[in-house]
Amino acid sequence: MRPGTRSTSPAGGRLEGARPKGNEPAEVLRVENLVKHFPGHGRRRAAPPVRAVDGVSLSLGTGETLGLVGESGCGKTTLARLVVRLLEPTRGRVVLGGRDITALRDRELRAVRRDLQIVFQDPFASLNPRMTVGAIVAQPLRIHRRYRASGGPDRVAELLELVGLDAEYGHRFPSELSGGQRQRVGIARALALGPGVVVLDEPVSSLDVSVRAQIVNLLADLQAQLGVAYLFIAHDLAVVRHVADRVAVMFRGRIVESGPAEQIYTRPQHPYTVALLAAVPVPDPTQRARRWHHGSAPAAADDGVIGLPGSNPTLGGCCYRDRCARALDRCRVDDPAMRETSDGHAVACFNPEPGN
Amino acid sequence: MAAEVPSLLSVRNLTVEIDTRQGVVHAVDGVGYDLHRGETLGIVGESGCGKTMSALALVGLLPRPAARVVSGEVNFEGRNLLALSRRELRAVRGRDIAMVFQDATTSLHPAFAVGDQIEEALRLHDHRLSRRGARSRAVDLLASVGVPDAASRARGYPHQWSGGMRQRAMIAMAIANGPSVLIADEPTSALDVSTQAQVLDVLRQAQETTGAATILISHDLAVIAEMADRVAVMYAGHIVETGLARELFASPCHPYTLGLLASLPRLDRPQGRLVSIPGQPPSLLQRLDGCPFGPRCRLRLGRADCAEARPPLAPTGAGSQRAACHFTDEMDRERRDIEREIGASITGSR
């Protein structure tokens, strides 16, 4: 189903060349020490910058799904926008298929987007209401001057069918579609150019439960079929457990823990991950007693003061220390770096939960 | 549920219609349930299933003039709430029946201090209460829902409060007059998981201290499982299944309930592919003759019963459960089929 051949790819954007060696999938996207500070607002000129993304490094392998979880305001969406270059990073690099795309402009950047697409959270805001579904899906092809070559209307019909929509939907407008159908259109648009990486920014959180499962299954099928890699950003920990191969947990602009999904969910090591997982209710009343007994962990320790999103009041020391039940004296002074505790599992904590 | 215990609040045959540009939407269609003293009834369903409209109708807060109650009775303390005048209803609302809405940001007035708004709620229903008395009660209430430093925080405005704290203030306001019924409409849906856990705790404590029976409305089956004693599942304006939470989650008797549980990714265990419910909820512009879930149902198999007759909410034989399905006797087999598909038990954990 990949569109045409990829021989017309611009030099540099080599994704197909690298083949997986052994079990490790070849790296297709790498984010190095990415930083985004927004200028502080407010009347006082001294307002500190909002450190929305504060030194994030990630790696994504071919055909793999990396789940990125965290609460609202932790910088997930800013990171998504930085990765696809909808925002300019303050520092750091984004490397796609071995090529640094951080400094690319205009034409070069456009060429890169053939390989790097995004699906937005809100399927109501992300589709132009004045364009038909067919025109929306065709737009990336037209922008990249591939509409004719890829087969024109046939290609659009093929893409719609790929995401489970009848080709007849091409003549409709987004307003005639349900939320789930619109999100399918958003996915078809993202896949139109056959990208190697798709950033999914909360792709199912605006959908109802019964429709959400359809889209989750669709995304899994498309990945199996096309070998596309997903950076799957969500606040819903259960959805991420279901879709992700690896998971990174984000807190106040930092990655505090990352590793294979199964390990993160069964043997979390960062106190924040532990608290976050303990706070999620489970659709089983018989587990209630166990949870109540534990009490809800003070993951948020909501003191009611509105913090700026991503603001980090603890300059120096660990970003989680104020909420942490396991904090040591050292945590007030030093900032823990990510270090590997077992194969592929890394945590930024001086006193992690003992893995059991 | 036989009528041994007189219920605190009983809803019968409630039907709500909404005028829209496209026509009349049958948002709530013949809904009935009982709420008993001290219990939590969870109403769960997807957006547009009528769960919020059915709750707003109880307290006369339907959006006017588009929405109206077409028929039904809501019996509360010997009176039919739907027959009360607006003035009479105003005395009940906020005192005997209080509400907590999803969006505390728009439910609190932005131009008044949070403490003042709670005082107002108190003095509205107790004219003898002095300002000073109301202030100290308001501060006590805020402290009781876990607002730190309540006395000084009460002077703050809603925009200075975080989302979780605002929702605590809403709960404080709701329990201010010691209501016997609390209606909480998606009280935590706008909050992060960890804040949600805290607010649910606060809600639980508030229920314990006031003894209020609660109607908890949510789209989130996990929140319902966490909080509710009894559950009503709504679909397309109808209640399709009710029962004790323990029983309903352990052995769902309606294909929709089963479908919802099967389509839910689980945090507490790995699982195979999700079994999604095909299609989408029906438009409520037309009233269907048959089962509203029919077009999406795996049990239907083209059977005429489903297309022609709307199944009544009937006892299923097992415990307290009632389900609106012609073929509840086939549910066990269906459940085993689905469990084989996802490679895990739908209900039991781990």
Give a verbal description of the structure.
The complex is a heterodimer of chains A (356) and B (350). With 356 residues, chain A is an alpha/beta fold. Chain A contains eleven helices and twelve strands. Chain A has a domain at 25-63 and 74-115 and 236-356: P-loop containing nucleotide triphosphate hydrolases (Rossmann fold, 3-Layer(aba) Sandwich). Chain A is 28% helix and 20% strand. In chain A, the strands form two sheets. In chain A, strands 6-7-8-3-9-10-12-11 form an eight-stranded mixed β-sheet, sandwiched between helices. Chain A has a four-stranded antiparallel β-sheet with strand order 2-1-4-5, covered by helices on one side. In chain A, helix 3 packs parallel to helix 6 (179-191). The longest helix of chain A has 18 residues, at 209-226. Chain B is α/β, with parallel strands linked by helices. Among the domains of chain B are: 104-228, P-loop containing nucleotide triphosphate hydrolases (Rossmann fold), CATH 3.40.50.300; 252-342, no CATH class. Chain B has helices at 51-58, 86-92, 104-107, 114-125, 131-144, 150-153, 163-175, 193-210, 221-227, 245-250, 255-262, 304-308, 331-342, and strands spanning 9-20, 23-35, 40-44, 67-76, 79-80, 97-100, 181-185, 213-218, 230-235, 238-244, 314-315, 322-323. In chain B, the strands form two sheets. An eight-stranded mixed β-sheet of chain B has the order 6-7-8-3-9-10-12-11, with helices on both faces. In chain B, a hairpin with a 6-residue loop joins strand 11 and strand 12 (322-323). In chain B, helix 7 packs parallel to helix 8 (193-210). The longest helix of chain B is centred in the middle third of the chain and has 18 residues, at 193-210. Chain B is globular, with a radius of gyration of 21 Å. The interface between A and B is large, with 52 and 57 residues.
